[in-house]
Structures are given as C-alpha cells and as structure tokens.
Amino acid sequence: MIKLGEKIKSLRKQKNISQEVFANYLGVSFQAVSKWENGITMPDVTMIPAIASFFCVSTDELFDFNLFEMEKHVEAICHESWKYREDDPARSERILRDGLQRFPGNDIILNNLLYTLGHL
Fold first, then answer.
1. pTM
2. Average pLDDT by consecutive 10-residue portion of the chain (120 residues)?
3. Can you name the CATH fold of 4-62?
4. Where are the domains of the chain?
C-alpha cells in the first residue's frame, strides 16, 4: 500500500513548513495537501516530480521504493516456494501466486510459477 501522504507529511515537517507554504509552491490549496496527508486523496501524477523536487528527494524515495529490499523479498518468496515444489506443488504454487499479489508482474516470480505449473 502506497503511503505517499504520510511521506509528504513527514518530509514537510522535516522542512518545518506549513501546508499552506507547500501548497503555494505547488499551486494547489492547503486543503488539497491536507487531503493527501490524511490519505483521502492522492496528488495528481503530474505533480509527483515537483513534489520530489521541492523536498530534494527522488521519486523512488518519495514512494519509499527500494529495489534491493524488493529483490530480497522476491528471493525469499521463491526460496520458500522451492522447498515445497516436489512434495506439495499446490502449496508452492500458492506461495508464488501470493508473491505475485505483492509484486505484480515480477518476472522472477512468474518464471518460478511457470516452472512449477509445468511440473505438476
């Protein structure tokens, strides 16, 4: 779940600026910023670069995206699935399908799932 509003609020407080100052920079109302921070709405996708620039962070950091951490989780999912591939292929498949729910379209998990399905 993306917690963009929480991240914006945290970065704004670190800079010690009000919602109004931040809103003026972006050309939106302070109510819009408040709604973002409270998870009621999300900023328009076209505003993401300006928000990241304002806080001097990358868009990855803004969204708390960490490729290394994601790869570790994917590896753990595939390793867990591998343990059950021979004795309980249905469980192996469930683990991989759950992994795809968490990391949609991940090639590594998809390849493991295809291998597993091909050996049922």
1. 0.60
2. 84 96 96 95 94 93 81 95 92 96 92 86
3. 434 Repressor (Amino-terminal Domain) (1.10.260)
4. 4-62, 67-118
